[in-house]
Structures are given as structure tokens and as C-alpha cells.
Amino acid sequence: MAKKNMRGADEVSGDVDMSPMIDCCFLLLIFFVVNATAITVAKDANIKMPSAVSSSDLKDAKGCIVVNIFNDPDKMSDEKTRKAFLEAYPKPNVWWSSGEENGGYSPDETDALTEYVSKQKEQMLARNLEEKQIRIYLRGDVNAPWARTAGAIKCAAAAGVVNIVFGTLPTK
Amino acid sequence: MARHKKIRTEEQDDPAMDISSMIDCCFLLLIYFLVATTLVSEKKLDIVIPGGKSSSSTPSPLEPGSITVKNDGSIYWNSDLKVGEAFDTTAAVGTAAFTAQRHLDELVGSLKLLKDQATAVNETPIVMMSGGSKTPHQRIVDVMAALAEAGITTVGLNTSTEE
Fold this sequence. Notes:
By secondary structure, chain A is of the alpha/beta class. Chain A has helices at 2-13, 19-38, 79-88, 110-126, 146-158, and strands spanning 51-52, 56-57, 64-69, 96-98, 135-140, 163-170. In chain B, a hairpin with a 3-residue loop joins strand 3 (75-77) and strand 4.
């Protein structure tokens, strides 16, 4: 009888308490989930990002006004990308889009783009962001012509945003 | 006595739930987010337009450097020295040819020289950049990367495009 008891005690001590490990694991999981979403800007999958040899990390996405600059759909090499782009932006001749879903802007809609940037700037200033923190974040396609980038910069300058950030992918 | 004991031990075993699958799942998600946060991150190159700040009344003793990027992607320093070849669209990302094209060592050298001259007289180096209307964006980013490498952040962008 006593022997039986001993065996029972042994079996109990063999179990490892997993709950602290699970706690820890969840904590890390939540940390990475939050991290993955916080320091980022709205990304448009229709853009093939350019590469740069020396670039720095985007430490803070606050104050970034995103403007996507597209290539002509008929110059897109990949058929799938072109289809996806035309589905996302059915309007003809879309040059730019903001991070929000708005159907994009055509070259004759520079006033609308300027208005969007100045509205974003006002909202950011209302949220107590400093003027120097407000930047225009240009996500240009690799083959997008300079005229479009220049147009977007002009609109930003007209709205009073002089800090420009070029979005890139790192390369060696 | 014996029968009673058996039933009791079975009852004690039952409430223990098998959580190993949940831990597996949790680890999988953890590793996914770990990888996602470090690898898929866009980088940045930031510049400031010089006209945005109030400029001093005395003109700078230094001539601003000028970079011209033509429609084919070739790059010129002070409009006569060719520092970058035409944009080669055939080079795939990750190949040696692609990497070699991203490095504009000659331009970086000229920019560093300009920066040294400017720091010698306590001035901010200013560079003007103009591009052709059809210049691919990648070439503009290459120039921006060269500027970042040389440590110049004040760049005038000529937005009236050349043909």
C-alpha cells in the first residue's frame, strides 16, 4: 500500500507546469503582432518598389502622408499585375493614389491631390504632430516616369509639405 | 476499496487538457510575426527641399552641385561629367549586374567633395537635381541613395521636367 503511494507521488512530480511558458509565449506573440502593424505605412501591392544601396529604417510612420506613384498599365511587364491594377483603379490614366481607397488621381486632378495632402496635414497638426514631423512618403514604381514623381512633389509643396521620403527596398 | 480508488484516479486524470497543439500553433504564429517584422520592411530616403526654409540674405559662396538624370537613366554631374550609365531594365533583382548598377561611386565621390568644401566654410551643401519627364523612378532613387551615402539631405528638385 505504501509502495503504491510512493509511485503516485513520482508521477505527479514528472509533470512540468506549462502555464508560465504559455504566458510568456502569448506576450511575445502580442508584442510582435503589434510591432508588425504599428511601424508601417499603407502599402499598395500594385507598386514594384525601387531598391537603394544606402537607406535607413522608417522608425516612425506617424506624420507620413503616403502617395503611391504608378507606372502606365500598358508598360507593366507582368499581366497579373496589370489586371490587378486595372481592377483596383478602373478610372483611366491613374497616376497617383493615396493610402486610402479613393480610386486614384489622374494628372488633371492635381488640385484634388493637393487638397488631400493639405487635409491630411491639417488633421496631423490637430493631433499635435509637429510640422517637421509631417512628411510626404512617395512610393514610386520602379519604372514610373519622373514627371509623375515631380507632379506629386509639386502638389505636396503646394500643400506646404517640404519633407520628402522616398520609399525603397534595401539592397547591397 | 480497490474499486473506489480506481474510479477516483480516472477522475483526476480527465480534467487535464492537452495543450501541446495550442503551444505548437502559438509558436508558429510567433515565428511568423518574428520573420514578418524583420524582413518585409520598407526603407526610406528622406530629403528636404531647400526653398521651404527661410534662406539667409547673403548668397552662399559655394556653387550648388547639379545632377541631371536623362530620360534613358544616364546620370550627369554638373551637366558634363557622366557618372551613371543608362538604366538597364534587363538586370534582375539580386544579380551582380543589378547591384553594380545601383552603386554610383563616382557621384558619391563628387558629392563627398562638395560636402567637405561646404563644411570647410560652415555652409550646408546644396544639390539641385533635375530629371527628364520619362526618367524611370529607380534612377532617381539611385541618385537619392548616393546623396544619402554622402550625407547630403538638402536637395533642390527641379520639378519642371526636361524633354
